[in-house]
User: What shape does this take?
Amino acid sequence: MNTLSTAIDFSKAIDISIPFKPQGVNAFWAPDVVIEPFKSGDFIGDVKQGGSVNFRNIQFNPHGNGTHTECVGHIHPDWQKVNEIMFPFFMGCDLVTLPPQREGGDLIITREALEMVLSLLPKQEAIVLRTLPNEVSKKSLKYSGANPPYLTKEAMHYLVSRGYQHFLTDLPSVDKEQDGGRLEAHKVWWDYEGGSRFHCTITELVYVDSSIPDGRYMLHLGLANFASDAVPSRPILFPLL
Ligand SMILES: [Zn+2]
Assistant: This one.
């Protein structure tokens, strides 16, 4: 997409993030989010409890407590930091919706299913994969131990072949929850052996309301500025005019 000649409807920002909050969404047995007032001597960082200001510590795990964006540092010993990756403020983005297919005890997204919805579209920088069913309860779902759907290695090869650099999904991971550490889809996405795609990102645990139709959007992938392999993020879609 030629971003210089694309008109965007800025009045219709579509937030596709799930907030980090106590009792929120949870995956990979991450501890729950804790937000509590800082205490020191007589000071308490809680106005309701007599403090002059609210001044709270927050404990969370980016991978398990909400919408987050990660880089190859998630699986690489060099521990690359996702906040050091530079990408355009706006990126052309496809939003597609698929029902995972049952294979044995698993639910999978296959290459063939992605080809059905993507093969005729022009190339974009980013893609959002929404999976079905898409109940609002996804925003507080407890995924740990539930063996959620995931992408096959071949499906990820297909997305890479289409040139996408930023992959977003409502799933908690692109790989099977317990895969013995193989992480095949992650490794394909980042070209783990070749190192040619270490500038690419994966964003997991988004939620795209069912009222938002599939199609082309402009994406702003807003990252919290933490120096780590994954950070809370707030992706926003803008409709095209
Ligand atoms: Zn993750």
In short: The chain has a mean pLDDT of 96.
